[in-house]
Amino acid sequence: MRPLSTALLALLLASTVVSTATAQLRLVNRLSAPLLLVSGEAPRAGERSAARLLADDPSVRALLDSFGIRPDAARSGQGTPIDQLRTLIEMSSGEFELAICEIFSAEDALPGMVCRLGLTEAQAAALRGALERGTLTRPLRLLGKNQTHVMRSADPDSEELFEVALVGRDLLIGNQAASFAEVLLSSNTTSSVDVHPPMAADPGFRSLYQRVSAEPGSVVVSLSWDRLADDLEMRLARSKVDRAHLPILHALGVMCAERVVIGVESGPAGLEATVLLDQPDGPCGVFRAAQEEPIRKLVDKLPTTGSGGMVVAIDDAKLPAVAKPGADSPSPRIGIGIRGGFAAFGVGFDRSVLPKLGGAVSMHLLPGAASANTEAGSNEECLRAVMSVPVRNRRDANALFGSLTSCLAGTVDRSSPAAELVVDEVTERQTLRLRERPGGSIGVVDSAIVYAPDAAAIEQLAALESSKSRKRTRGIRQRAQKHLKAQNLDRAVGVFRIAVQDVEHFGAVCLEDDGLIRIQVVTPS
Questions:
Q1: Which stretch of 13-22, 141-150, 210-219, 486-495 has the lowest confidence by average pLDDT?
Q2: How far apart are CA 525 and CA 504, in angstroms?
Q3: Of 142 and 434, more confident
C-alpha cells in the first residue's frame, strides 16, 4: 500500500498545534452507517490526550498486529498505515474523527475510511495555500461548494487515491469516494443525498454515546457490532488466533451485541475506559446466569497465571436457562450440543449434570504457540484462551468428564463420533479432542471441566496452577483490588486482568438495570 503523502505530513508538522475551536463538520452528524467511528476531543491545556496514550500503548499495537490490521512496517520502509494515521491525529488540534466504512479482504490494504482532523488556524492557512498552488495535490471534483483534491502520485495509474478537502479548519482525508461525498453533501437537516439518517439520529446509538465520557481529551469508539461480528469471525479464522476461541466469545455473549460504544479518558491513575454492550434480548451466554458479588470476593477468585484471566460469578439457579439449546447457549458450537448428546445416551442433563456444576466460571489467557486450529497451522506465538467451568468437587468433575466421553466419543456403535479420547504420554491426562469446527479440547484440571484450543493448553494450565507462586498471586490480586476500588466499584458480576507487552489492564463487568453490559477498565500509567 502506498503511504500517505510525506509532504502533507511535513506541511502540517511545520505549524503550531494550539487550538480551542469547535469544529462544525462532524462525521457523526453526516455518515449514516460506518462500521466503526472513533472520535477524539481536544484536551485541556497541559493535559494528556487519551488518543495519544492509546497510540503509545504497546498492548493496543499487539492487538492490531494479532488480527493483521497493522501490516509489517518493513514492507514500505516508511511506516505502517496505522503509524501514519497516528501521526496525522497527533498533528491535529486534538479533535478528530475516524470512520471505517468498509473492510477490504487484502491484508496490505487500508480499510475504506474517512478521517476529519480539526486544524489550527496556522495549519489550515498553510494547507489552503498548498492546495491552491497544487504543489501537493491536483483538483479532483466539486462536491456542493467544496473543491476536493487528490494527492499527487508518482504512479498516475494507481487506484489508491486519497481524497482531500479543507472545510474551514477541518481537514477531510479519505480513500472511499461514496463516503467522502456523503460527508460533504449531506447536512444536519434534509438533502437529496440523505438516504439514511446519520448515526447521531439513531436513538439506540445516541443513548449509548451519551452514557460514556466525552470529556476534553477523551476518545469515543462506536462500533456497529452486528455488522462487524461476522467479519471478526473470518479474521479470527485467518489470523494467529485459534478458531477454538470462537465458542468462548459466544460463551461470554460478546457476539450477540448489536452495538458497542467505548469511552476512554486519561485519569489520575492512567487510562480509564467504559465499554457498553447493547444486546437485543439482554445479557446472554454466561452473563445470563451471572450474579453480583463484592469486588473483593471476585478478586480472590481471579486467575493470576499466564497473561491474565477473568472470573464470572454464577447463580446456580439460572444455569438451566442458560444451558438450553439455541442462540443463548453458553457454547452452542462445541461438539454436537452437550444437552442433546447426554440425552442421546440416556443421561439426564438437568438431573445428572447441572447439580454437579457451581461456583464461578474462569477464563485464562495463556501464551504459547498457535495450535492446529488456526487456518494455516501457524507456530507463531499467540494468546490462547482457556475456559474453566467449576464442578462441586474433583470426584464429580471426573464423573462428569466420563459422561462427556460417553456422549461425545461414544461408548456404543456410532458412525461419526464428535470427539476422540486422547491420553497424554507423560501425565496420562485424558482429554477429548473435538472433531467439529471450530474444534478444541475438553479435559479436567483440579475440580473443573476445561475447554481449550488443544490438549497442550490444558496441560499448560494444569502445570501453572500447580506451581504458581503465592507471593506473585497475592501481588497481582492486591493491584487488581487497588485499581478497581479506585473506580468506585463495590460490586460486579466479574473481574479480569490482561497483561500484554508488560502492560496490565484491570476491569470489572457490571449488569445495568436496563440490560446493558457495562465493562469498566483501568490501565495504570
A1: 13-22
A2: 9
A3: 142
pLDDT value at residue 235: 64
Give CA 192 to chain center in angstroms.
36
Using the predicted structure, report yes or no on whether residue 74 has a pLDDT greater than 50.
Answer: no
pLDDT digits (tens, 9 = 90+) for 21-39: 444 688 988 888 788 898 8
Q: 3-state DSSP call for residue 456? A: helix
User: CB neighbours of 377 closer than 8 A, spacing ≥ 6?
Assistant: 370
| Burial of 77 (C-beta count, 10 Å sphere; 0-12/13-18/19+) | exposed
Q: 463 and 429 in contact (C-beta within 8 Å)?
A: no
Q: How many CB atoms lie within 10 A of CB 86?
A: 18
Q: How far apart are the first and last CA of the chain?
A: 34
**pLDDT at site 325:** 52
**What percentage of the chain has pLDDT greater than the value 70?**
69
Report how far residue 245's alpha carbon sits from residue 499's, in angstroms, rounded to the nearest whole number.
18
Distance of CA 114 to the CA centre of its chain: 21
Buried b (16+ CB within 10 A) or exposed e, 374-413: beeebeeebbbbbbbbbbeeeebbeebbebbbbbbbbeee
**Per-residue pLDDT tens digits for 279-300:** 887 888 788 889 999 999 999 9
Per the CB < 8 A criterion, the answer to whether 300 and 477 are in contact is yes
Which grid cell is 232? 471478526
Say whether pLDDT at 508 is over 50.
yes
Contacts of 156 (CB under 8 A, 6+ apart): none
Q: What is the pLDDT of residue 72?
A: 42
* Residues 30 and 195: beta-carbon distance below 8 Å: no
| H helices present in 112-264, as ranges | 121-133, 177-185, 203-211, 225-238, 246-251
Reduced to 3 states, what is the DSSP secondary structure of residue 443? strand
Distance CA(519)–CA(128), nearest Å, equals 43
3-state secondary structure of 270: strand
User: Are 447 and 397 within 8 A, CB to CB?
Assistant: yes
Query: What 3-state class would DSSP assign to 250?
Result: helix
Q: HSE of 348 in the Cβ direction (CA atoms, 13 Å)? A: 4
477, 301 contact by CB (below 8 A): no
**Whole-prediction pTM:** 0.81
Q: Tell me, what amino acid is at 242?
A: D
Q: For cell 447457549, what's the residue?
A: 329
Q: Which three cell numbers stand for residue 123?
A: 495549519
E strands along 154-197, which residues?
A: 163-167, 170-174
Count of residues in the chain: 525
- Please give the residue that has the higher pLDDT: either 72 or 127: 127
Mean pLDDT rounded to a whole number for the chain: 77
